[in-house]
Amino acid sequence: MFEENISLQHLNTFGIKAMAEKFAEVNSVDQLSAIVALHKDLFILSGGSNILLTKDITKPVIHLVNKGIEVMDQEKESDFVLVRAQAGENWHEFVMWCLSHDLGGLENLSLIPGNVGTSPMQNIGAYGVELKDVFYELEAMEISTGLIKTFQPADCNFAYRESVFKNRLKNKFIIINVTFKLTRTHHRINASYGAIQSKLEENNVDKPSIKDISDAVISIRKSKLPDPQEIGNSGSFFKNPVISSDHFAEIEKNFKEVPHYVISPTEIKVPAGWLVEQCGFKGKRIGDAGVHKYQALVLVNYDKATGLEILELASDIQEAVRVKFRIDLEMEVNII
Length: 336
Ligand code: EPU
Fold this sequence. Notes:
Bound molecules: uridine-diphosphate-2(N-acetylglucosaminyl) butyric acid
CATH class of the largest domain: Alpha Beta
Strand order of the largest sheet: 6-7-12-10-11
Order of helices and strands: EEHEEEEEHEEEEHEHHEEHEEHEEEHE
Low-confidence stretches: none
CATH architecture of the largest domain: 2-Layer Sandwich
Number of helices: 8
Structural class: alpha+beta
Helix content: 25-40%
Strand content: 25-35%
Number of strands: 20
Radius of gyration: 20 Å
Shape: globular
Number of domains: 3
């Protein structure tokens, strides 16, 4: 069932060289059941788009590649349709499948790297939409018992880049499939994000379709974010921190132009990319580890950087932001 000493370099979007002592590609629930019956301490690898490998993996690695997309329920009267995708489906290909069937809800989440199965783990989000906005339910296998359990939205504790699967239930369940509640008529267009509005104006679109939104998002992402096929990266490396309004007022005294989003009367979110840029790291390169030149939130592997080199750069950034702004940047990427 397991192969030995397999390179994971092409299975993590950072392109870091690391080995799996034991590795199995799994494409069915039966195969997964057989594995969890024998092994309880597993490393689940999905799209590899939100991890930084700093060492070889000694636990058995399970690479989930189960595929399939099905329309679960399409009541003629209803605006909505439930669509279930298996965990191993590539996220962006799934979004494109939905668009090709004129199903709405995922268009703002176009071009996010990774697979369907890990999308709920960190409640992926971009351009005004988060996974939780379209999530219906998921099925996951409990590693200790091999039983398959269904999780409704309330069970998942979704928050900004967070879910129960990153916290209380970490390493306890393997997500097998995810069901989304999508619109089939009366699509709810979300063009609230400034960059989308500008892109639509530039394209002379005044009544955007879901395809127009997706095209705008793809074009914004391509202009700002490095393509992992070309330069290794895991998207945003840090979360955008939330600070108190008093703390924010102090920062604003010295930096009048600080971008921010008001979360509540006492809390303000500040873009981590801006903080990192202010500390002089944008475009910085140390060996093959670097900070992207157009988006300081993204750390990159130009070629042969090790996970530890990227981590060291991340620590330097955290230290600089702490000293200059008294803000602790939290890593969004999972350090392995
Ligand atoms: N900014 C800078 N310098 C930079 C980067 C950004 O000053 O180097 C400023 C921008 O000018 C803008 C603000 O920061 O005023 C926000 O930038 P942007 O719109 O690019 O979004 P972000 O906050 O940096 C977040 C997500 C992205 C997501 C975008 C769009 C997080 C940690 N990141 O980035 O998610 O695509 O918004 O919604 O929340 C990811 O999670 O991997 C990811 C790419």
